């Protein structure tokens, strides 16, 4: 294993900036030197064959390997024909129906908002390519279902890959001239940051920077629209939350990484002339939603007669969220794409003028308490919940979110139309159908 170390280190240490990649002289020399030195006896020759096969196996199976585009083609067909099929599918999916249509790369395409937004873009005639790493933060079967039942049906091709894989990103941007990137790939969830803090840094900071690095060095960089979060308002107590309010008191690491994302976006806008719009989503919910969110697991637990915890603030203070229905958020994303101005920098060179930079709230602007959320679910599910009221733990949550959406109205013509009762009705209908069908198919 010590002999493997230099090579494994080399694979793990691929720099995030493509173009800077050079094989490390020392490790190549080391292997070469050891090979020459040790192949003198037949026994050591055998060991070296085993050793080299091991390395090759590790190299091709490693999830972060730079051979990502090639690894996809361990199929029955030859690698080159599978590669050209992959490229053709991407090009086909990227093609807008009309000359005025956009060509959008959607990161996090099998995620909740990503899947809905990709389908909406494709349906109205834009070209769409999805990118997603299908990670295991929550049920991968649900992600696969979003792919097969929503994206495949709409004709959106999804590349399986990570935003940290700059080789793959460069390949995609080399293949397709994207006019826009809808960047939704992220580590979501406020409370999970207590369990796995590094995943937030890896996706929301490293991944975002990697994407921006690749985008900024393309010949004609696309405009970027990306998902920030209402959580950046943190301990801000002035309501409703306006984009002008302070956002320097995050209550979770998740919020801190989203706030950092906004600062990073500003730097790339300022230096490289990238057109960037950050959308602060407010507790988005609806069909095909995220199982880690309260409305989703409350539904599951209520149906399973399992106790649920309802958070309340100090002195029995109400905890409430500005729950925003998925269709309203998707409309906001599409308007943000349509109203985005072009980036002004190119080829990584400095900008020639000011590029557009926006941060916009996408909320519902009518907060509802968690108690009311549960009562609505009880009514829709026709099951009484086993409730336990507990003091909101200090692990990322804030007592209240409430969006001021006047900027969204002005910039995007945004107008949310679905209230929590109507939205939950649609969610519950989907939930029962989806899990019922799965139960039946497993019988
Ligand atoms: O809008 C946002 O910025 C964020 O919205 C959600 O975060 P959150 O609003 O905390 O949504 P949930 O985790 O679904 O919680 C909803 C409400 O239920 C409460 N809750 C949660 C869990 C629980 O066991 N009991 C409970 O009362 C929370 O305090 C909160 O008020 C998402 O999970 C984040 O990814 C997103 O960025």
Please, could you describe this protein's structure?
The chain is α/β, with parallel strands linked by helices. The chain folds into 2 domains: 5-62, no CATH class; 186-442, Rossmann fold (3-Layer(aba) Sandwich). It has 15 helices and 13 strands. The chain has helices at residues 5-12, 25-38, 42-61, 68-71, 79-94, 112-123, 140-154, 166-175, 197-216, 253-272, 294-303, 326-339, 370-381, 406-412, 420-442, and strands at 103-107, 127-132, 157-160, 180-183, 223-229, 276-281, 284-285, 307-312, 320-321, 324-325, 357-362, 368-369, 386-391. The strands form 4 sheets. Strands 3-2-1-4-5-6-11 form a 7-stranded parallel sheet, sandwiched between helices. Strands 7-10 form a two-stranded parallel ribbon. Helix 10 links the parallel strand 5 (223-229) and strand 6 (276-281). Helix 6 packs across helix 12, helix 8 (166-175) packs parallel to helix 9 and helix 13 (370-381) packs across helix 15 (420-442). The longest helix has 23 residues, at 420-442. The chain is globular and about 70 Å long. The two termini are 46 Å apart. The protein binds uridine-5'-diphosphate-glucuronic acid. Uridine-5'-diphosphate-glucuronic acid is lined by residues 188-190, 229-231, 281-283, 293-294, 309-311, 319, 321, 370, 392, 397.
